[in-house]
Write a structure and sequence with these properties.
Elements: E1 40-45, E2 63-64, E3 67-68, H1 69-78, E4 83-90, H2 95-104, E5 110-114, H3 119-130, E6 147-150, H4 160-173, E7 175-181, E8 187-189, E9 195-198, E10 205-214, H5 215-224, H6 227-232, H7 236-244, E11 249-252, H8 263-277, E12 280-284, H9 289-303, E13 308-312, H10 322-325, E14 328-334, H11 340-351, E15 360-370, H12 382-393, E16 397-406, H13 410-430, E17 439-441
Parallel strand pairs: 1-4, 1-6, 4-5, 7-11, 12-13, 12-14, 14-15, 15-16, 16-17
Antiparallel strand pairs: 2-3, 6-10, 7-10, 8-9
Helix pairs in contact: 3-5, 5-7, 9-13
Length: 442
Amino acid sequence: MNMEGDNCDPDRPAHPGIFPAGEGGQSYHQPWERSVDFPVSVVLPAGGTGERTGLQTPKQFCSFLGRPLISYTIQSFERVSWIQSIVVVVAKENMDLMTDIIQRFQHRKVRVVPGGSTRHRSICNGVLALGGQGEEQERLPADKPKVVIIHDAVRPFVEEDFLYKIAMAAKEQGAAGAIRPLVSTVIATTSEGYLDHSLERARYRASEMPQGFTYDVIYQAYQRCTESDFDFGTECLHLALQYCGTNAKLIEGPPTLWKVTYKRDLAAAESIIKETLSRSACVITGGSAGAVTLADALQKAAGALDMELDVVPDLKGDNGRYLLKEWNFIQVSVNHSSLSEVESMLKDLEAASRALLHPLVVIWVHLSGSDELSVSGETPEPAAIADVASAAKLRNILLYGIQLHQSKDTERWERSVLRVAEITSALIRERSPALVGQLLQA
């Protein structure tokens, strides 16, 4: 009976606490960051064919929001400063594809090695590569990690806090693994297809990833295991127990460890990432009183929509940090139809390489004069924003426009501001290419 956690939770997905926000290959130092004083490396087996998705492309290479799934998983590990290297194991025919993904998204902690004919053979190749062995020897055995974390390439939402628990337990116990409660009863059938018996669900758990091992334990387990283990086995913890006598520490993992198994899971993963990216935005006012007033009103209205807005006059000096942490920007322009402020911001975003991993959203909110008389009499030209948006889209930046008319009627004005907040929230959440370059009326 196989209780490995491919699909232990049919009611998923669950949302990750934080999805990393930064450039490819970059480690993210947080004030609360854990300290690990021993070398840790990762093996990501990614040689599956993805038969259960019903797609021609293996699921680890399926793209959403402009990136393949495996790139999101790599990013989850690259952002952890104490992880020194990542070995991705792929089928030999996908070596060039994986290398291209690493280069395109500037993953810097990663190298690729060819896989084997089964899951265990592929993981073994990754372990050997970390020890300076295998087909593509690039490091000396003396550099081998103390702990090896093994994780599925199609589980993109792994969090640093849990990786820390796995790494520390593996160092102390020799092996550690994630488990989750079973949500369905497990039964055994007879060879004729009848019920044999069922298991008491409360006594069993689903084995999940990640799993961690000291290098020596997982290396020795693969050296000692049989050809039958290589060909038919799937559980690394079992090999450590059977061939090294190492009884793994089992740690209950968060619900975010679910695995992309079916086609619907790809849509769920995209939805999670979209929602995570849409939780906040930075509003740039240019310092004008009218823009600040509107920004403050938008901030209050957005709060009711569960979106956090930070309001700043510009992106210079200390405010430049938003270029490195935020995925959504709102430029407020008052009484002039020039796109110069937006174009300046687009240059700053391009220089910061912010659109490398995720599409950025930039929303230009143009506030014209009162409904009786526009102060400047200028109206933004739809063609102008369309041209700028078209060029920005080539750099993975989605530019939208919203036109808002100042009103002296307080109630009408509040309704308009709320409408802008709703449109802004929807644009950020959906990231729809179809509306790029359009000037929407609030």
